[in-house]
């Protein structure tokens, strides 16, 4: 045993995984062996979800069955809707979605004994149900902020088109649906990141998958992790336009601020997903005729490269892309949840299949042993 401390577990390998491989040397990311940029280009979010859970891409029949299953589970559970309605409009959508997922768990009547909590087949069924329900939950979390009613799902639409239909009440042009689908694929999985590790810690106690996802959402909320896509948009609004990027960055770095959407624990030479998401952002910029967004994006990226040689992560192009699509900024990280629930739950199943309780050690630095004075 060693007393050497690795702050933040940086560089520590804690377990094996067959779900994805992040390779900073070659700047590549593989889901079950497939390069993520190929998946984004050639597959749908449904195919990628199937791949993450089953380890293989579906054939035609498997995909049709999987899509039918997902479409049959899309209607927002009325008790979940009531629970959301009971929350104040001031609640952050991350807290709304976290609460809704927790309610889904409390409603699941198959969670009868502790053996059923961790049953592999039931865990997969629950994971698919959460994934199918999250578009309704996130869309409703957005709509209630605009004083709009719930939109019922359409079972003639794919996952992303239906997600946008439930959010905005109409299906946008194909170019928007495709950019959204790409973001769902890129956000789906990233090995032992903080939220996935949280889900695995919870699963390792032999708790259920809803609890693991609820905890993972809490970890994702912070701006050092998923909350950064929301923070990027706030930074863009603070800066205003490309002209202001250099001065804004100089001041922010002088104040020792962390620049949101830049840097990564694993990638040090750029995030493997950024070129694909930046291309999706560029198509949106063209579609919505908003060139100034890309000008600001490029100006801040260049200034940050020159000042610190730190590259953007996936949250950097995703934030402005979701803004162009019409989402409120506070909904950006909930969108990340809807995508990452696939990866989280694939990891929960992997953890359960070869479980060891995750319980590290700490180096005690408090007072030496001392004693409470005896009563006089
Ligand atoms: C999808 C995702 O979750 S990706 C991550 C999203 N998060 C963000 O975008 C938040 C901004 N980024 C960060 O805070 C960090 O880069 C993290 C948390 C993502 C990674 O952090 P770590 O791996 O711990 O890197 P660490 O903090 O050690 O950074 C190394 C150096 O680069 C600096 N640095 C890293 N990222 C940034 C940044 N975004 N802005 C300014 N400086 C930075 C650090 O201050 C540190 O400098 P120092 O050596 O002078 O102290
Ligand atoms: O891997 C990480 O540390 C953060 C993360 O989830 C991602 O980049 O998608």
Notes on the protein architecture:
The protein has 17 helices and 3 strands. By secondary structure, it is mostly helical. The protein has a 3-stranded antiparallel beta sheet with strand order 1-2-3. The N and C termini lie far apart (44 Å). The site of oxaloacetate ion (OAA) has 7 residues, from loops.
Question: In brief, what are we looking at here?
Answer:
The protein is mainly alpha-helical and about 375 residues long. The protein contains 17 helices and 3 strands.
Major β-sheet strand ordering? 1-2-3
Small molecules in complex: acetyl coenzyme *A, oxaloacetate ion
Biggest beta sheet attributes: 3 strands, antiparallel
Strand content: under 5%
End-to-end Cα distance, whole Å, is 44 Å
**Spans where pLDDT lies below 50 across 5 or more residues:** none
Net shape: globular
- Coarse structural class: mainly alpha
List the helices and strands and how they pair.
Blueprint (H helix, E strand, L loop, with lengths): L19 E4 L4 E4 L2 E2 H7 L2 H10 L5 H13 L5 H8 L7 H15 L6 H4 L2 H26 L13 H10 L5 H14 L6 H11 L4 H13 L6 H12 L5 H10 L19 H14 L3 H18 L6 H11 L6 H22 L23
Antiparallel strand pairs: 1-2, 2-3
The structure holds acetyl coenzyme *A and oxaloacetate ion.
Keywords: Acyltransferase, Transferase, Tricarboxylic acid cycle
Organism: Microcella pacifica
Pfam families: Citrate_synt
């Amino acid at each position: 045993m060693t007393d050497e401390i690795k702050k933040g577990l940086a560089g520590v390998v804690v377990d094996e995984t067959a779900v994805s491989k992040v390779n900073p040397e070659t700047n590549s990311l593989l889901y079950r062996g497939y390069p993520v940029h190929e998946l984004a280009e050639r597959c749908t979010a449904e195919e990628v979800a199937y791949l993450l859970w089953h380890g293989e891409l579906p054939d035609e029949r498997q995909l049709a069955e999987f899509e039918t299953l997902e479409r049959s589970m899309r209607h927002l559970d009325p008790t979940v809707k009531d629970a959301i309605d009971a929350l104040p409009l001031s609640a952050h959508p991350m807290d709304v979605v976290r609460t809704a997922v927790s309610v889904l768990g409390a409603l699941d009547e198959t969670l009868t004994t502790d053996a059923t909590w961790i049953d592999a087949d039931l865990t997969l069924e629950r994971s698919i149900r959460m994934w199918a329900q999250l578009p309704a939950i996130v869309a409703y979390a957005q709509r209630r902020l605009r004083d709009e009613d719930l939109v019922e799902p359409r079972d003639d639409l794919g996952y992303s088109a239906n997600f946008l239909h439930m959010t905005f009440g109409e299906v946008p042009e194909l170019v928007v649906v495709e950019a959204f689908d790409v973001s769902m694929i890129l956000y789906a999985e990233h090995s032992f990141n903080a939220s996935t590790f949280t889900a695995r810690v919870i699963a390792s106690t032999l708790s259920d998958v809803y609890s693991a996802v609820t905890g993972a959402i809490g970890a994702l909320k912070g701006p050092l992790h998923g909350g950064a896509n929301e923070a990027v948009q706030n930074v863009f609004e603070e800066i205003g336009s490309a002209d202001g990027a250099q001065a804004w960055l100089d001041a922010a770095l002088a104040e020792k601020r962390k620049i949101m959407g830049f840097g990564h624990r694993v990638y040090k030479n750029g995030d493997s997903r950024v070129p694909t998401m930046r291309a999706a952002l560029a198509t949106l910029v063209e579609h919505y005729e908003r060139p100034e967004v890309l000008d600001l994006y490029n100006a801040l990226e260049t200034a940050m490269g020159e000042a610190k040689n730190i590259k953007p992560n996936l949250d950097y192009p995703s934030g402005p892309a979701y803004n162009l699509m019409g989402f409120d900024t506070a909904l950006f990280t909930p969108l990340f949840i809807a995508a990452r629930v696939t990866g989280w739950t694939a990891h929960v199943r992997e953890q359960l299949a070869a479980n060891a309780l995750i319980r590290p050690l700490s180096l005690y630095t408090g007072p030496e042993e001392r004693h409470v004075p005896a009563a006089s």
